[in-house]
User: Fold this.
Amino acid sequence: MLFNSLEFIIFFIIVTSVYFFLPHKYRWFHLLAASCYFYMAFIPVYILILGGTIVVDYFAGVWIENANGTRRKLFLVLSLIANIGVLAVFKYYNFFVDNINALGFHFSFLKILLPIGLSFHTFQAMSYTIEVYRGNQKAEKHFGIYALYVMFYPQLVAGPIERPQHMLHQLYEKHDFNANDFFIGFKMMLWGMFKKVVIADRLAILVNTVYKQPQNYNGTMLLLATIFFSVQIYCDFSGYSSIAIGAAKAMGFKLMTNFNKPYEAKSIDEFWKRWHISLSTWFRDYLYISLGGNRVSIPRWYINLFIVFLISGFWHGANWTFIIWGALHGFYLVFSIITKNGRAWFNKLLHVKKKKFFHTFLQVTTTFLLVTFAWIFFRSSSVNDSFYIIKKIFSGNWGPLQDEIIFSKFSYILSFLLITFLFIAEHTFADKIIFAKLSEQFKRSIVFGITIMTIILILGIFQKLSFIYFQF
Assistant:
C-alpha cells in the first residue's frame, strides 16, 4: 500500500480513528493487525518471512538476556546469521551467482522477488538483539509488542530504522488524542506528500526516460537528468519519511528524524549527518564502533571509514553500481580528513565577514556536486551506463534540450520553480509552520495547509509511483 494512494488515506483515517476509540489494552493488537494488513497489501506471502525472523529474534532476545558467557554471544550470532541469511538469499544470492557464473561456473538463479523493505526491518530487528546483548535494552517478553516494534506500519518498509530504547516503551504508553500532535502530524504528512507527488514524481518522468536509454541523449540532458535525480531522490525519500513520522505523530508516537536539509551540508561528513540519519547512525553504532572507530591507528581508521561506506553501498542494492557509490563516499570522507589541514588554511583565508557568504556557498556547492556525481552510479542500471553518462557529461557533448514531447518547456520551468520553492521553504519557513503548536501561528498554518493541499491537487502526479527506497 503506497503512501501516495487513496487507499492509504482511507487506511490512515480508519486506523487512527479506531486507535483512539479503542481501550488502551487493545491498541497494540489493533496496530499490529493494521500493520500486517498494510504489509500484505504488497505481496501477502512475504509476511511469512517477516514473521519467521520476528519469532527468531524474539526468542534470541530472551535467551541472550538469560544466558551467560559465550552462550550470550552464541545466541546473538545465531540471530544475526538468521537475519543476514534472509537478506543474503532474497537480496544478494542472484548477485553472487551472476558474478560467480562470469568466471565460468553455471549456478542457477533463484526466481524470487525481493520482499519489500527487507533491509529496513532486518536492520531494525538486528538493532534489538545487539542492544539486548550489550545490556542497553531489556529483552521484550510480550511477543505482540516486539512484533509491533518490527512491524509498526508507518516505518515498516522504508524507515526510519528505530532503536528499541526509543520505540519499545512508546508501544506501552497510553496516547490520548492530542489535537496539537495530530495537527503537526497532518502538516508533516502534507509536506511529505507535496515533496513526493508534486516534485519527485514530476522529476521522475524526465529522469526515468533519460536514464533508461542514456545513449539517446546528449550531455545537456544527461547532466540535467542527474541534477533532477539529486532532487528527486531527496524529495522521494524524505517525503516518505515525513509521511511516516507524521502518521506516527498523529497517534502520539515519536519517530526519529531521518533528514535535516542534507543539501545545505558544507562537507560530506556533514551530509551524512543530515541524510538518512537512521541508517548512518545504525552503521556508526553497530559497525563502525565494532571495527574500532577512530580509536585505532590512522591508516586503520581510514580503512574502517571506507569499509562502512562500502557496506552501506552494498546494503542499498545487489549491484556493482551501489558498491561504487558507497566507495565514492568513503573516498570523499577519507580524502577530506587527509586534506583537512590544507582546507583549514584555505577556509581561514576566506573566512572573513565580506567573504563568509562566498565561503559557505562554495562549500555547499562543492558538496552538492560531489554527492550528485556519486548519484550517477546509484541511479544507473549498470556500471557501463554510469561511465557512459560521465563521459558524455564531461566530454563537452552539449546540445539543446531534447524530448519536448515527454517533458515540455513548461514542465522544465515549472520544475525549476517548484525546486526553488522547496529549498526556500525548507530553509526559511516550512519547519516553523509545520511544527508550530495549535495555539501558535494558527492562521498561518491553516493557510499553509490549504496552499499545499491545493498545489498537490493541481500539480500532483497521481500515477501511484512507488518510493525509490522500497526496493531496498
Summary: The two ends are 16 Å apart (CA to CA). The chain has a mean pLDDT of 90. The CA atoms of residues 121 and 150 lie 6 Å apart. The longest helix spans residues 179-212.
